[in-house]
Design goal:
The chain is elongated. By secondary structure, the protein is an alpha+beta fold. The strands form 3 sheets. Strands 1-2-4-5-3 form a 5-stranded antiparallel β-sheet, sandwiched between helices. The protein has a 5-stranded antiparallel β-sheet with strand order 6-7-9-10-8, sandwiched between helices. It has a two-stranded antiparallel sheet with strand order 11-12. Helix 9 packs parallel to helix 14, helix 11 packs antiparallel against helix 12 and helix 11 packs across helix 13. Strand 1 and strand 2 form a beta hairpin. The chain has 16 helices and 12 strands.
């Protein structure tokens, strides 16, 4: 088979073009070639090339084959391709192609190719008939209030969900193709006049550097173009909800849609977005602010609880009140393992139970997690293999990590890292680990922008949607370090309803 990358301009000779395409698609049985003698005199040769089973046969039969069979003479009086498109065929999506690369990619993406003798251009008709999943609420982004729609694996459907919410000509959507073998289609979406053009240019520069055989998911792109690839923290946002993408576009961000996956990337990414939820803007701002603070506290507790417990029990027992110290010492008296090893084992067991529950069927997974947590934990305590306080610490660390699902990977790595330092150095190790974590977070960047520190002077409008969520009438500006046009409510005065 001839590699598509070595193709050139299409031959002007009909028979030569058909023969070449048959050679290209040899041993590819779903690709059908239907050659016809069309016209009332049967003196016009034509060939349809399509992927059997993935095209809309009704469109092909009624809007392509039937007009060809009823064609009396070749249309005259204008360019031949335009004449066929305006007088013969009535199909919504159609384009002309003269390059074999474009033809092969379109046919493999289940468009229908039409070659007509005497026509120097190929006609490509949009006849896709994919089986696609219905638009439902994403399982990983459940909310209490707000829209229930979620993206699917078909990119065009995803674009329509965003276009329906942004009814403006400022919304720009530009296609891009990646993957030497998959030729996966991407769509770069942004609001013209709001987005910073330097961010868009930087995105295209990084995409142009990608040289890979296939793109199957948005995370491929995330890992290939992200800032600081060894950091456990994200430098690009991700979501399966069209309302979230719409909100990000309104703030001046860029969205990257990838065909074949419901996940959409958004950039640049600020660190505070790890603790934000899309329903924060659909609920009362007092409740939203409380929830955000709770998530931040939960993140730090999930990381620090095991390390602090080990540091106190192993090195700094004097920090505990005497009754509590006696209670913990009594529980640990018959436990054979040191507290640090005990903590590592229990945390690993907890992660095994959680990962197993995620990979199993929903009903089985829920039962497994409950049975594992109750039965295994209780049995371990009764068998004197683990102290009861350790079970409490591990449970608290695991539960608080569920408050911030976007930070699962960083939480897991940081928890074990700081715990290791605490096991060897006590509170000195906890302090060192926390300092390194904070320094790393302060140095995070996303497409040239600092994730945590604003570039300009700190003002109320710069922090109105960070730890706290101000009421909508006070959010006059978009994030200054992201958007080019920062005015969101230009006619209102700051702080005035």
């Amino acid at each position: 088979m001839i590699s598509p990358q070595k193709q050139g301009a299409m031959s002007c000779r009909y028979q030569e073009t058909v023969a070449h395409l048959k050679q290209v698609f040899q041993d590819d049985d779903p690709i059908e070639f239907r050659e016809m003698q069309v016209g009332t005199e049967g003196d016009i040769r034509a060939c349809l090339v399509f992927c059997d089973g993935l095209v809309d046969s009704e469109v092909i039969d009624n809007h392509l084959i039937r007009p060809l069979t009823q064609l009396k003479t070749i249309p005259r009086g204008e360019p031949l391709a335009d004449a066929f498109l305006s007088r013969v065929f009535q199909v919504n999506t159609v384009k002309k192609a003269e390059d074999y690369n474009d033809i092969i990619q379109s046919v493999t993406y289940v468009d229908t190719l039409l070659l007509i003798d005497g026509l120097s251009e190929a006609l490509l008709f949009g006849t896709k008939s994919f089986a696609e999943r219905a638009v439902t609420e994403p399982e990983g982004e459940k909310i209490l209030s707000g829209p229930r729609e979620g993206f699917t694996e078909v990119m065009m459907s995803n674009l329509s969900l965003v276009r329906r919410r942004l009814r403006t000509d400022k919304l720009k959507m530009r296609y891009y193709t990646l993957g030497e073998q998959t030729n996966t289609q991407l769509c770069i979406a942004y609001l013209d006049g709001v987005v910073n053009p330097e961010i868009v240019e930087e995105l295209y520069r990084r995409l142009a550097l990608i040289d890979i055989d296939g793109i199957l998911d948005a995370n491929y792109i995330n890992e290939l173009i992200r800032d600081d690839p060894w950091s456990p923290f994200r430098s690009m946002g991700y979501t399966e909800r069209p309302d979230v993408v719409t909100a990000k576009l309104l703030e001046g961000r860029v969205a990257v849609f990838v065909d074949g996956t419901p996940v959409v990337l958004t950039l640049p990414y600020l660190f505070i977005e790890n603790f934000q939820s899309n329903e924060d803007y659909y609920l009362n701002f007092y409740y939203t602010t409380f929830c955000r603070v709770l998530r931040m506290v939960g993140f730090f507790l999930s990381i620090m609880i095991p390390a602090i417990y080990i540091a106190i029990v192993a090195y700094h027992q004097e920090m505990l009140p005497a009754p509590l110290l006696i209670s913990i010492a009594t529980e640990r008296q018959s436990v054979p393992l040191p507290a640090a090893i005990e903590a590592f084992i229990m945390l690993i067991v907890f992660e095994i139970l959680r990962e197993t529950a995620l990979r199993m069927q929903s009903s089985v997974g829920q039962a497994l997690s409950i049975v594992g947590a109750l039965v295994v934990g209780q049995a371990a305590v009764e068998a004197k293999l683990v102290a009861a306080p350790m079970i409490i610490m591990v449970a608290l660390a695991g539960i608080t990590s569920l408050l911030v699902p976007k930070m699962n990977a960083p939480t897991l790595l940081l928890r074990f890292g700081i715990l290791l330092l605490a096991s060897g150095l006590g509170f000195l190790g906890v302090t060192i680990g926390f300092a390194f974590m904070l320094a790393h977070i302060l140095g995070l960047r996303s497409f040239g922008l600092w994730q945590l520190a604003p570039d300009k002077k700190l003002r109320y409008q710069a922090v109105k949607d960070t730890v706290v969520r101000a009421p909508w009438y006070q959010m006059l500006f978009r994030p200054e370090q992201i958007a080019q046009n920062v005015v969101r409510q230009g006619s209102r005065r700051e702080g005035q309803p």
